[in-house]
Amino acid sequence: MKKEHHIKEYNSNESRRAFLKKIGISSVGISLLGFGVLNTLNACKSDEDKKKIIRFLAIGTMTMENWTQLEKDLNLSITFADSGNDVGPIIGSMLYGTASTDYDVAGNQGGTERELAQAGKIIPWDLSKIQNWQETWGWIKDIESAKVNGKQYGLPVIANADSVIYNYKKIGKIVDSYDVIFDPKFKGRVAMEDAWMNSVIFTAIYLKGNDLHPINDPGDLTVEELEFVMEFLIKHKKDGQFKTFWNGWETGVRLIKSEEVWAMTGWEPIVYEGQKSGLDIRYAEPKEGYEGWTNNLLLHAGVQDKNVVNEAHQFANWLMNGFYGNWMTKNRGYVVPNDTTLAFAKQSSEFDFEEQKKKIEHVKNKFSKGKVYWQNVRPTNYKLYEQWWSKLRNA
Fold first, then answer.
1. Rg of the Cα atoms in the chain
2. 242-251 per-position pLDDT tens digit
3. Are 364 and 138 in contact, with CB atoms under 8 Å apart?
4. Using one digit for the tens of pLDDT, what is the confidence trace for 30-39?
5. Which of 21, 127, 129, 294 could pair covalently with 110 via S-S, beta carbons 3.0-4.6 A apart?
C-alpha cells in the first residue's frame, strides 16, 4: 500500500486546533516532494511583517502549543510545518522540491547535514551570533555528523534516547526488553514506527542484545545483517504480530491513548501524553540498550534571499536560552543539551526546578549509564534499507 506523507502548517499565534478550525479544514496536506507555503497565510501580510516571520519545518514534537514567549522576547513570529519523521521524504523535499526556499529553518533528525550541504540546500551557522551555543554540552558539540568540512551545519537543539512505550496495566509487568514487541502473547497489540531509521535499529538492538544474530553496529548494518533483520520483521508482520506500523506524532499518541496498542517502540513524549489521559503508560529501560538521537536545527539557503539570516540566528539562540528547553523537558521529556535550562528553571515560577532536574538527569543517565546505539539516517547501505522497507510495507 502506498504511503502518503503530508505536512501540516500552523501560525504561531494560535494553537494547531484553533488555527485549523478557523480556516475550516482538519489538516493542511501538501506533498513533501512538491509543496509550497500556503498563499493564504501570506496574502494579508505586508513586506515589513514578512521580515519578522521565521518559517520552521520540523518534526511535530519540536513545536510548542504556542510561541507567545518567543514573540514577546524577540518580536518574531513562527509559522510551523510538521514534516513528519520519515527522513526520506524530508530529504527529498529539500533536494527535489522547494523546501529550502519555502522554509527558513528545519528541525531534522541528525545526520542529513552532509547531503543537504553538498547540494547547496543549507548553509552553515555563524556561531558568533549564537551566544547560547557556548553553553551546549561538550559531547554534543563534538558530534561530527552535524559538521561539514569543519563548519557547523546542524545545531543539536534536542537530544534523547528512545525505547519502548507500554501500558503497564495491559502488559502486567515492568518491561525491560524489546522482547515485548515480538512476544506472541501480545500478538496484534504491539506496533512499530513506519520508518526504517527507527524500527530497523530497534530490531537490530534486540537481536544483538539477546545473541539471536551476530550484529556489529545496529545503526549501520551490513548487507547480510540487514537481510536477517528485515526477514525477521517481515515474518512477524505476516504472522499478524503488529497491529500497525504507525506514522506521525498524532497517530502514535492516538494508538496509546485509545489502548488499541499496549506496547510499541517510539518516542518518549507519547508516554507523557498517555499519562495525561490517566493511563499508566511507562517507558522501558531495555537491557539491550537505547537508540540515541538528536534533532538538529538547519539553516536553509533561502534565508539569504529573504533577508532573514539574522532573525534565524536569533531564533536559534532563543531555542537555547532556557524557556524552550524547560517547555520541552516538562511536556516532551526531551532535553535541550545545555546548562541554561536548569538555570532558567531555578529563577522561573512557571517550571518546577526539582521536577525539571529529575527529568534532565533521567535523560543524561541514559547516555552515561545505559547502552546507546546512535540513530543513523544515512547508513552505508541506506538505499538497500529503503528497498527492504518497501518490501515490508507490501508484505
1. 20
2. 999 998 888 9
3. no
4. 334 333 443 3
5. 294
Please give, one letter per residue, the 3-state secondary structure of 273-341: HHHHCCCCEEECCCCCCEEEEEEEEEEECCHHHHCCHHHHHHHHHHHCCCHHHHHHHHHHCCECCECHH
Instruction: Confirm whether 3 is domain-assigned.
Output: no
Segment 283-300 mean pLDDT:
96
374 three-class SS:
strand
Q: Which H or E run includes 114?
A: helix 113-118
Other C-beta atoms closer than 10 Å to the C-beta of 18 total 12
The Cα 331–Cα 133 span in angstroms is: 23
Helix axes 196-209, 382-394, angle to 10 degrees: 90
- Of 288, 100, 89, 334, the closest CA to residue 195 belongs to 89
Please check whether residue 2 lies inside any domain of the structure.
no
**What is the model's pLDDT at position 279?**
98
Give the count of beta carbons closer than 10 Å to the beta carbon of residue 98: 15
Task: Render 173-223 in DSSP notation, one character per residue.
Answer: S---STHHHH-GGGTTSEEEES-HHHHHHHHHHHHHHTTSS--S-TTS--H
User: Taking the model in full, what pTM does it have?
Assistant: 0.83
CA atoms 76, 81, 85, 87: torsion sign: negative
Q: What angle do CA 196, 92, 233 make, to 5 degrees?
A: 15
Which 3 state secondary structure label does DSSP give 62? helix
Specify whether 12 is located in the same domain as 130. yes
Q: Are 283 and 163 in contact (CB under 8 A)?
A: yes
pLDDT for 52 equals 74
Amino acid 86: pLDDT: 79
For residues 213 and 152, state if they share a domain: no
Find out whether 308 and 299 touch, Cβ atoms under 8 Å.
Answer: no
The rounded mean pLDDT for the chain is 88
Q: Which residues pair with 161 in a beta bridge?
A: 292
- Which residue do the cell numbers 509487568 mark? 173
Give the pLDDT confidence score for residue 89 in this predicted structure. 86
CA distances from 236 to 16, 244, 330 (A): 37, 12, 36
| DSSP state letters, 216-266 | S-TTS--HHHHHHHHHHHHHHHHTT-EEEEE-SHHHHHHHHHTTS-SEEEE
pLDDT tens-digit profile of 74-122?
Answer: 999 999 999 887 788 899 999 999 999 999 999 999 999 999 999 999 9
Instruction: Give me the domain span that covers residue 172.
Output: 160-291+374-394
1: in domain: no
Identity of residue 375: Q
